[in-house]
Amino acid sequence: MSLGLGRRVALVALAATAATGHAGAQGGIRGILIDSLSGGAPVPGATIQLIGATRSTVTDAAGRFRFDDLPAGSWRLATWGPWLDSLSLPPIERTVVLTGTDVIEVVLATPSLGAFQQGRCGTPLPDGFGILLGEVRSPEGEAVARAGVSARWEELRLGRGLLERTPMATVDSTSADGSFALCGVPIGDDVVLRATSGTFGRSGQLIVRADAPVRRRDLVVAPDGSTVRLRGRVLAPGGTPVVLAGIVPLGDSLATARTDSTGMFEIAAWPRRSTQLMVRALGFEPRTLDVEALLSEVDLDTLQLRRIPPQLATVLVEGRAITVAELEFDQRRRRGMGVQLGEAELGRLAVITVDAVGAMIPRAQVIGTGVARRIVFRRVTITGGRLNQFCEPRFFVDGVDVRGLDPDEQALYLRNAKRVEAYEASFAPARYNDFDGCGVVLIWTR
Description:
The protein is mainly β. The protein has 4 domains: 5-109, Immunoglobulins (Immunoglobulin-like, Sandwich); 113-220, Carboxypeptidase-like, regulatory domain (Immunoglobulin-like, Sandwich); 227-304, Immunoglobulin-like (Sandwich), CATH 2.60.40; 313-444, TonB-dependent receptor, plug domain (Ferric Hydroxamate Uptake Protein, Chain A, domain 1). Strands 10, 11, 13, 14 and 15 form a 5-stranded antiparallel β-sheet that branches.
C-alpha cells in the first residue's frame, strides 16, 4: 500500500545529496503543516525534509517547524509518511527561495476538500457526505483489480406523512493497483462495506463509521473455503475471566464460540479475509473488533470488556425514580409505533421465554426446535431464486447493538428483560438503524 513509492524514493535520494550553490547570507524558513481535508487541522509529529541539505525536523504539537542558518538560494521542502498514505496522497512538496537574511513563512498543506473530491469523484460533494477509500488485496498482499466494492446505509426521509427509511448505496470497481473510492458516504453514520472479486473471493460485511470527510478502510478478500484458526481470551476489569462470553462474527460467517472457565476461546475455521467479530456477555458492554486473518493462526491475545455503567435516575413529579431509558421507553409507547412490552406485560408471564415474548409481537414468529428457539420477523423475499419467508431482526441490549443473537443468548437476555420493544424497519427509533430492512428488537435489562 505504498502509493507514490517511486516519487518518495527519488526525494530520499535527493535528501542524501549534499547541498551545492548555497552560500552567502544566512536566512531561515518557518512554516506549518496542515491537513486541509480535516478543516485545516495542524499535523503534529510529521517529518519535514529539507531536500539537498540532509536536514530534517519534526512538526510540534501545533504543526509548526523551522530551519535556521540557511544560505541564500532555492530550497525544496517535502514531507511524506503513513498519514498521507492513509489519504492516498503523494508527498507534499514546496520550493522556497531565500534572498538574504529574511525568514520566509510557508504553509504545507494537503489539497482542499473540494479539490480532493473533484479529483476523486469528478464533482464536489454536498455537505455531510464524504469519501470512503482504500485498497483491496489478497491475503498474500497481491492487489486485486476489478473487484466490486460497495457501501450501503439507510436514510430517513419523509414520505406518506411518516419518516421512512430508504436504502442507499454507493459502488466502485478497483483499479489495477487495487484502489477504490466510494463517493457520497454520509459522514458520521455507519455503513456496511464489502468487496467481491470473481477471482479472489470476497471480504466479510464490515460495519464502518465514516467519521471524517475522507476515511480509509483497506480490505482483504479470499475464497469461502480459506480459513484460519482464531483464539483469544476475554477478561473483565481487574483481570478476572469472563465465562461463557459469546464470540460472534458480524456478517455472513457461521463460526461462533464461547469462552471457557479461564476466559479462553478458539474457533478452528475463521474466514481468512477482512472480518469483524463481537464479544458480548450479560452485564458488559459488547466489544467489536476488526480481524485481518492473514496468517494460518491468529491470536487476539487478551480482550477486556467494560461493565455496563449504572444509569442515572430521573425523578418525576410524583416522586417515582426512573432511568432515562425508562423515560424514553414511555415516550415511544405514547407515539403508538411498534410494540412495547413493559414490566406490567412481562410481569404477567410466569417465565419470560422466547416463545412467550414472540407471541406478543404481531409480526414475529418463533422458529427452531427444542431449546434452540429464536425470534424472527415474517417477510417474504426472493434471493437467488430462493423464497425466504422470514428475516433476522437486529437486536439491541440496553441500547447497545449486539446483532444476531443466537437462540441461547436470546433466551438469556429475555429471561433478564425488564422491557422489550419491537419495530418494523421503517418505524424504528432513529438511533436504532436496521441495514437490512427487517426490523429491530430492543431488550432492556435495567
